[in-house]
């Protein structure tokens, strides 16, 4: 070997750790690892998995380096995927290693799945023919490989007959790839006849897919207009073009009905991807996506980091949903990163919603996104008749939360044998427990939040960290017995109130803390869809994407909840949530009603919902954002400092602030308490960075973090680009 080639045998490997740059390793003789290859490398006392990011130059002496220990027999991460990882890291100001880790979430999938033994006919004939043997030969005569039991079963003979033929070498053993996790979808399987509007929308999406190249389309249509049906046509086009497809859904674990619908259209389910899957199932999906054997994935936001080979379309359903934002380690919005992935891969992205985010609406209005609208519900299924119930004029009975207007409507619905939904975005029995004698309030010892009474469990608990204790009988402050009162409603309390009015009604309470987890939730959702409940009381979990054919009344118990927290996004969120939850009613054409209990019936959000005038809402909201220079007309980022004490966090944040380089067009606000000031025993303060649309916030923050005090001891600094609340 020449000196030159010896020096070139190094690789830069990105390891899934909070490392800023790849590490250099030597490649042992005879080992090859091109960029993207997945390898095992020694790191300190351990061996870790990493991705070859670059082939090394000649600047380091390979004899001084540790060597790559193994190259996995696994398809490499594509160049696009590696660019995507680098891009996400730079945008979110996260170490590339941590972003790469999201793409390597299935370590056991790195080795190929063991092949399955199969049998194939040879030229030999059996010594003696029997009727059973004849049937086997006839079955296997197609020249295909069969599994032993599959062949016996198909020919209707015992395994012994097959084994007998095998021992005479009538069959040879071949190795078949492990079975696919899902069959290949058929783009023509259950094609629907579309309405004229749907066809026009579908043609538009179809055009985007078949002309190829990057584009973003906002598919904007009221609930029930057939957005899913329409984007399925784009999926079909991408499949016909030989590309893989990713469909992102905010709550895939709970929208199993979606998989059925996909099956009806394509004759096979998509592969699922979310955190509630068993590790083994995840590994299979990861591997087969990398091999290109899985053609369509329906997944939660983390599916964006699957190692697709030939991704050609991403659909982001319910694109406005806050569940797309991850606020843990790498803070990212999967909707926005999906657009980036489309840009890097040069393929179309479709954002679907009945209530698009203000950001996407502005992008569509300004021509950066294509805008495809579906203004009417399918088959004239009417949107529910929506009314605001002015709670000042129709107060509930003492100690209750349901107005007489809503109760009367529930009674009529029950009599008609139809379903009602009572929506309240508050889990538990009561959001606050206090002592009637001394006024003591129960607060979480680790968070800045009140403990919520859960009567079914007999506990008071914290909704941020899960801290809980049995519901006390005496006040810890003044010692008085039996004087604790529940303040305000949670869904358990609403269910209790409904039961007191309608003792014979079948009531289901639905929220994410239901005992029994996702499995139980799925069963309950199915039961509701099958009409096994008269009254459903639920949190936002029931608002999302479900189809409840018997539901004709939706009562929003407290429409004002989300408007009072002072967040500039509050109006948008409330508008989206109320539209979505009232959209659960009347999906099958029955006359339906939505009653919205509010103390502010004149609030622009209530007016927009009741009048159905979405355009007025967007126009107003967009104008206000523009005036205040808020997203998407300006840019925001949070720098969150957390520490065991408020003093340490504040001190560090002030240090960062004073290190800020001068930057025209960028304003640094704070430090102030973060939206959640205390969580899991850590105090959090936030600096808010506000810039104009073209401001380089990332560059500014990078410079500030470099110049300011470093993380030390228990002090942590986390950057949140495009924060949810501002
Ligand atoms: P969206 O996604 O806009 O809420 P969906 O795609 O879920 O709307 O459609 C609402 C309902 O109407 C679904 O039950 C769907 O099966 C039905 N539907 C929509 N379009 C058609 C069509 N062209 N043919 C048959 N059924 C349709
Ligand atoms: Zn807590």
Rg on CA atoms, Å:
29 Å
- Per DSSP E runs of 2 or more residues, the count of β-strands stands at 31
CATH homologous superfamily label of the largest domain: P-loop containing nucleotide triphosphate hydrolases
- Give the rounded overall mean pLDDT: 90
Structural class: alpha/beta
Which band does the percent of strand residues land in? 15-25%
Counting copies of identical and different chains, the oligomeric state is single chain
Describe the biggest sheet?
7 strands, parallel
Q: What are the bound molecules?
A: adenosine-5'-diphosphate, zinc ion
Which geometry do the CA atoms define?
globular
**Uncertain regions spanning at least 5 consecutive residues:** 1-6
Q: Can you name the CATH architecture of the largest domain?
A: 3-Layer(aba) Sandwich
Cα-to-Cα separation, first versus last residue: 60 Å
Strand order of the largest sheet: 10-11-9-12-15-8-16
CATH topology of the largest domain: Rossmann fold
Keywords: ATP-binding, DNA replication, DNA-binding, Helicase, Hydrolase, Isomerase, Metal-binding, Nucleotide-binding, Primosome, Zinc
Pfam family, one: PriA_3primeBD
GO molecular function, one term: 3'-5' DNA helicase activity
Family: Belongs to the helicase family. PriA subfamily.
């Amino acid at each position: 070997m020449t000196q030159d080639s010896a020096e070139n045998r190094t690789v830069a490997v990105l390891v899934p750790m909070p490392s800023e740059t790849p590490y250099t390793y030597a490649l042992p003789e005879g080992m090859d690892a091109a960029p993207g290859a997945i390898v095992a490398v020694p790191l300190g006392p351990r061996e870790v998995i990493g991705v070859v990011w670059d082939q090394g130059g000649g600047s380091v002496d390979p004899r001084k380096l540790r060597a790559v220990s193994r190259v996995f027999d696994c398809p490499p991460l594509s160049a696009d995927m590696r660019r995507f990882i680098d891009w996400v890291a730079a945008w979110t100001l996260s170490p590339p290693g941590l972003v790469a880790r999201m793409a390597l979430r299935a370590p056991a999938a790195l080795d190929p799945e063991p092949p399955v033994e199969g049998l194939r006919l040879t030229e030999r004939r059996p010594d003696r023919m029997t009727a059973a043997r004849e049937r086997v030969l006839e079955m296997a005569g197609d020249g295909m490989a069969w599994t032993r039991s599959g062949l016996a079963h198909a020919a209707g003979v015992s395994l012994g007959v097959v084994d007998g033929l095998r021992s005479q070498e009538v069959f040879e053993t071949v190795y078949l790839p492990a079975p696919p996790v899902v069959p290949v979808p058929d783009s023509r399987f259950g094609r629907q006849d579309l309405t004229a509007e749907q066809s026009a929308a579908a043609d538009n999406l179809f055009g985007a897919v078949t002309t190829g190249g990057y584009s973003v389309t906002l598919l904007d249509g009221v609930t029930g207009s057939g957005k899913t049906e329409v984007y399925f046509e784009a999926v079909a086009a991408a499949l016909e073009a030989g590309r893989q497809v990713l469909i992102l859904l905010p709550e895939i674990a709970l929208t199993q009905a979606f998989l059925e619908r996909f099956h009806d259209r394509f004759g096979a389910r998509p592969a699922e991807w979310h955190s509630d899957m068993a590790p083994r199932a995840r590994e299979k999906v990861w591997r087969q996506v990398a091999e290109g054997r899985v053609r369509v994935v329906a997944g939660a936001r983390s599916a964006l980091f699957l190692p697709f080979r030939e991704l050609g379309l991403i659909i982001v359903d319910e694109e406005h949903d806050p569940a797309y934002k991850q606020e843990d380690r790498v803070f990212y919005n999967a909707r926005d990163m999906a657009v980036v992935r489309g840009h890097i891969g040069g393929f179309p992205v479709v954002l679907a919603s009945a209530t698009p985010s203000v950001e996407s609406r502005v992008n569509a209005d300004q021509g950066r996104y294509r805008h495809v609208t579906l203004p009417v519900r399918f088959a004239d299924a009417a949107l529910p008749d929506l009314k605001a119930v002015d709670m000042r004029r129709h107060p509930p009975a003492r100690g209750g939360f349901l107005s007489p207007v809503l109760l009367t409507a529930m009674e009529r619905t029950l009599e008609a044998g139809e379903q009602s939904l009572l929506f309240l975005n508050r889990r538990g029995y009561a959001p606050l427990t206090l002592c009637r004698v001394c006024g003591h309030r129960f607060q979480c010892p680790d968070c800045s939040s009140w403990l919520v009474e859960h009567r079914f469990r007999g506990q008071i608990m914290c909704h941020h960290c899960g801290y809980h204790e049995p519901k006390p009988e005496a006040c810890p402050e003044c010692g008085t017995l039996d004087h604790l009162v529940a303040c305000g409603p949670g869904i358990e309390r609403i269910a209790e109130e409904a039961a007191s009015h309608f003792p014979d009604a079948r009531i289901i309470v639905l929220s994410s803390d239901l005992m029994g987890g996702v499995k139980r939730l799925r069963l309950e959702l199915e039961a509701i869809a099958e009409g096994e409940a008269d009254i459903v009381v639920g949190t936002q979990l029931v608002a999302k994407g479900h189809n409840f054919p018997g539901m004709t009344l939706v009562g929003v118990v407290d429409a004002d909840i989300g408007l009072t927290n002072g967040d500039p996004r509050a109006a948008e969120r409330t508008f989206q949530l109320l539209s979505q939850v009232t959209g659960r009613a009347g999906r099958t054409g029955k006359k339906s009603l939505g009653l919205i209990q509010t103390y502010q019936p004149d609030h622009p959000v209530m007016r927009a919902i009741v009048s159905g005038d979405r355009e007025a809402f967007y126009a107003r909201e967009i104008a206000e954002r523009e005036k205040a220079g808020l997203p998407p007309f300006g840019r925001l980022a949070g720098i969150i400092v957390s520490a065991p004490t408020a003093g340490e966090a504040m001190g560090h944040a002030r240090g960062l602030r004073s290190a800020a380089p001068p930057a025209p067009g960028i304003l640094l606000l704070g430090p102030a308490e973060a939206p959640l000031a205390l969580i899991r025993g850590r105090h959090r303060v936030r600096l808010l960075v506000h810039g104009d649309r073209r401001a380089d916030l990332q560059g500014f923050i990078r410079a500030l973090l470099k110049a300011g005090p470093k993380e030390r001891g228990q002090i942590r600094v986390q950057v949140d680009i495009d924060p949810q609340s501002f």
